[in-house]
């Protein structure tokens, strides 16, 4: 496993970051033991960088997976909260549920514009104080939007940026793939740590996973690459891909054959809450029930988190 520093943050991370969205209730909904096994496999394979978010509800998986592990692990989490006191509660919750004295990276979750970044000023102010107190080691921002990466490149409080990047440009907003890469290169020039999200387009590019991996690994402007994984076999395959080693043919075929989709059950009431949180405009109302545009959907599952009838799931 190759390790790199996340910009000037001082954090040394594995090139491959384990994303835990896929193991939690918004997607695979693994048992605690199954999810912890995925995390433990990642550690044993050399991955020392694990990311989550309050929304994912996976702190318990990480805590169990790390139990008894003596090696260095870099953890990142995120929250949408924009207030000082609210962000304080989110960080305290993360520390409590992860069983840690500090969290390596705490991020603003999926910022939509320069204006929303400015509106999260009080939350950033708390994170800056938490960093001074040693509760947080680095401050970050995740985003799908080109102008947010540009703004973070110049922001004095932001240490780490997590933009969406994949060869097809799926999910990038406010510009093209080349615009996003230009913004990332600016951020790297300014000393920010940058690690990519959704290099496989939320699963939409699985049938072209070799092409997707070749593209993302060739980019010299990324310190690490976050990928959601839900089985030990998937972890081992991705570790080999990043290392440039061959993947067993049967594993490669299984990955290519896998297909994910957003399922909206028949008991949907059409309330529209899911549509309000979908940044891809992939959901629409038809005949009193929500429908999904599979060409736009990134299979993040965030819509499922706000469904009052529990009728949405990535399967």
List keywords for this structure.
alpha/beta; 2 domains; two-stranded antiparallel ribbon; 315 residues; Alpha-Beta Plaits
Q: What this model shows, in words?
A:
With 315 residues, the chain is α/β, with parallel strands linked by helices. The chain folds into two domains: 3-257, TIM Barrel; 262-314, Alpha-Beta Plaits (2-Layer Sandwich), CATH 3.30.70. The chain has twelve helices and 14 strands. It has helices at 32-44, 59-66, 84-98, 114-119, 121-133, 146-154, 177-189, 209-218, 232-243, 249-257, 273-277, 302-306; strands at residues 3-5, 12-14, 16-19, 49-51, 74-79, 103-111, 136-143, 160-163, 193-196, 224-228, 262-264, 283-286, 289-292, 312-314. The strands form four sheets. It has an eight-stranded parallel beta barrel, surrounded by five helices. Strands 1-2 form a two-stranded antiparallel ribbon. A two-stranded antiparallel ribbon has the order 11-14. The radius of gyration is 18 Å and the shape is globular.
């Amino acid at each position: 496993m190759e390790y790199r520093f996340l910009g000037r943050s001082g954090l040394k991370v594995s090139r491959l970051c384990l994303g835990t969205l896929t193991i939690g209730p918004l997607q695979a909904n693994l048992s605690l033991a199954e999810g912890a096994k995925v995390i433990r496999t990642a550690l044993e394979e050399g991955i020392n960088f694990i990311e989550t978010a309050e929304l994912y509800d996976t702190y318990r998986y990480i805590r169990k997976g790390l139990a008894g592990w003596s090696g260095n692990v870099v953890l990142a989490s995120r929250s949408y909260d924009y207030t000082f006191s609210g962000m304080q509660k989110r960080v305290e919750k993360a520390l409590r549920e992860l069983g840690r004295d500090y969290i390596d990276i705490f991020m603003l979750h999926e910022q939509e514009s320069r204006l929303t970044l400015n509106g999260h000023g009080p939350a950033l102010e708390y994170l800056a104080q938490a960093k001074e107190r040693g509760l947080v080691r680095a401050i970050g921002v995740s985003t799908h939007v080109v102008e947010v990466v540009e703004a973070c490149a110049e922001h004095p409080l932001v240490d780490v940026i997590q933009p969406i990047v994949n060869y097809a440009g799926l999910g990038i907003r406010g510009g093209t793939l080349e615009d996003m890469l230009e913004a990332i290169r600016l951020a790297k020039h300014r000393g920010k740590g940058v690690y990519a999200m959704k290099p496989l387009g939320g699963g939409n590019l699985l049938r072209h996973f070799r092409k997707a991996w070749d593209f993302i690994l060739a980019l010299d402007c990324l310190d690490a690459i976050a990928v959601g994984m839900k089985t030990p076999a998937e972890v081992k395959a991705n570790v080999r891909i990043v290392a440039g080693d061959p993947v067993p043919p049967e594993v490669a075929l299984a990955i290519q054959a896998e297909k994910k989709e957003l399922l909206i059950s028949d008991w949907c009431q059409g309330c529209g809450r899911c549509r309000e949180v979908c940044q891809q405009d992939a959901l629409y109302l038809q005949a009193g029930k929500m429908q999904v545009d599979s060409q736009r959907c990134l299979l993040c599952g965030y819509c499922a988190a706000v469904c009052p009838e529990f009728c949405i799931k990535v399967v």
